[in-house]
């Protein structure tokens, strides 16, 4: 018996179209599998875009295309959208039964999207949203803000070891309003943008960012640095900030 | 190589509101004045004009003159508060064609209900509090739309952008969401062998029908007057789009009517859905802004 071709599809949980297409997919000999976060997208990934996050329609195809081009360049990405547009990697949802076989046969691998963009489905452009999250509107890059807090604090770690009499000055430096302002910028941007990230391919990165932000929040918001907790600032806050910065930089690689 | 900085669009938001009358202690109008200009932080050509006229009939002409003479190159959004006794007739007056002044690009009549996006009570990035201030409460947090930079009061750009974009994008957004929603409901129903949920079908058909009615009632030859919110009194008239856009709204309305007139089993077919979707696309493709801000 010939092996069934696996088609993984990604859609929001309220979209009933993929399930309605299941009998057609079975008839065509496809194994029709809902994509779960953590799955490997290869060899074929269908994205039903835009996705509904409960408040907005999000066009996620651009971010996925860049991600696949970088990490899974051999995967075939096929965007299933609600418009009559011709493209090698796009199929009109109303025409999927008639056109899909030909599209699947000819769709170039995702490496194409290293230098091109997929058909835009007209909702909130998540590529732009990711850029705004990471880079802000000017010189407000999340990673740079993180780095600024880190560099403000890191000289203190060495002083703590070598010059314990400077501890009070280190504490004052940590409690400087500029450090908390920077943290406030990080925290509010994360809170504002997090609801848009549910259907993007960076689930594990976002989850780690979420945990780090939760861990860091009380240090900046609940109390000031003091003689009692100064060790924690260097053993917990600094490494967490460094990790956060590296995760943000990792994300930047996908939204240049 | 140094990149030339892109100049921000020239924007003027005029809010006619009870600035002088109620507890306005965050940023009071100058003593003896019924208007002032507050710059948006970091934006050379973006301003909020606060205006609290004594005579609303005169104010119509004054606003048109200000737009024509002082801000001819600006995109202008005008918010008229209902508690000043402005009503839809004033919106029509302010948008009337003629040599006497210039109408705004978008005119919104707001007030009386507390669900408006411009209010802090409904948006963490709003501009107004119900007590007349620019500082208000959102989910228990005090939020201010004003900040002091170099001893000068300015509007926070995020708040200005948020309100501006919300009212600018709302018309396209409504059409886009309806286009997506009707396919998401009807197309799976047409693929399924079991009977579709009549409540769900009725709901989307009702939305389409209501939208067609709204277009039919509000599209005149050269402008559109749309209710933006749930409250009947919250209305706007927009000139963001040229008169070439109005026929596309009317075509969409006709396509909706044709679709609704079809038998239910025909509605659940591709040949019935495609022309309606095409009418949506023709309109959406002609509206230049992004669907979402």
Features:
A: alpha/beta, Rossmann fold, 5-stranded parallel beta sheet, B: 293 residues, alpha/beta, 2 domains, 7-stranded mixed beta sheet, two-stranded antiparallel sheet, 11 strands, 40% helix, elongated
Which helices and strands, and how do they pair?
The complex is a heterodimer of chains A (256) and B (293).
Chain A: E1 5-10, H1 17-20, H2 22-27, E2 30-34, E3 44-48, E4 51-52, E5 57-59, H3 61-71, E6 76-81, E7 90-92, H4 96-106, E8 124-125, H5 126-135, H6 142-162, H7 167-174, H8 177-193, H9 203-221, H10 230-252
Parallel strand pairs in A: 1-2, 1-3, 3-6, 5-8, 6-7
Antiparallel strand pairs in A: 4-5
Helix pairs in contact in A: 6-7, 6-8, 6-10, 8-9, 9-10
Chain B: E1 11-16, E2 35-39, E3 46-51, H1 56-70, E4 75-81, H2 88-95, E5 106-110, E6 135-138, E7 141-144, E8 146-149, E9 152-155, H3 157-191, H4 198-218, E10 224-227, E11 235-238, H5 246-261, H6 264-267, H7 270-286
Parallel strand pairs in B: 1-3, 1-4, 4-5
Antiparallel strand pairs in B: 2-3, 5-11, 6-7, 8-9, 10-11
Helix pairs in contact in B: 3-4, 3-7, 4-5, 5-7
Structure in words:
The complex is a heterodimer of chains A (256) and B (293). Chain A is an alpha/beta fold. Chain A has two domains: 5-122, Response regulator (Rossmann fold, 3-Layer(aba) Sandwich); 130-252. Chain A is 51% helix and 12% strand. The two termini of chain A are 45 Å apart. Chain B has two domains: 11-160, no CATH class; 170-223 and 243-286. In chain B, 40% of the residues lie in helices and 18% in strands. Chain B has seven helices and eleven strands. In chain B, strands 2-3-1-4-5-11-10 form a seven-stranded mixed sheet, sandwiched between helices. Chain B has a two-stranded antiparallel ribbon with strand order 6-7. A two-stranded antiparallel sheet of chain B has the order 8-9. The longest helix of chain B has 35 residues, at 157-191. Chain B starts with 10 loop residues before the first strand and ends in a 7-residue tail after the last helix. Chain A binds chain B through residues 14-17, 19-21, 23-24, 50, 52, 56-57, 82-84, 93-94, 122-125, 137, and chain B through 157, 176-177, 179-180, 183-184, 187-189, 191-193, 270, 273-274, 277-278, 281, 284, 290-292.
